[in-house]
Amino acid sequence: MPRYHVDMNLMEFYGIGCDHCDDMKPHIAQVEKEIRRSFARYEVWENEKNLKILQKLDRGLCGGIPFFYNRKTRDYICSATSADNLKNWALGKPNNAFTQAEKKPFGWDDLVKETQEKLKGPLDAVKQIQQKIQPKPAVAGKKK
Length: 144
Hints:
The protein is α+β, with helices and mostly antiparallel strands. It has four helices and four strands; from the N terminus they run βαβαββαα.
């Protein structure tokens, strides 16, 4: 992934192990590529100094992470959001501070199909073994 000039006006606050923060990684990478600038990143769960910066900028608006703050426009985004909304925020265009990122619906059908494919080989092997060890049925009228 190419690194661009870090724009200190575009601040991302996150926590290591934060699921919502991790969900934003592909959106952030996409936006950085499109605007050709990188966000200044601040980890807040393990860094007290960064947490204090977050609290000062947040002012009780969001109270969580991920939190995005644009120092130039004083605009912010609370939690995960779409790539389009994040790009608008980064460019100083109208955006929604509370828009949730679109989640792809969970595909049960795809999961079942994938699982069946993974089990096909082992299940076929079990069937072959069962056929080999099963006693053959006795034929009527024959004596042992």
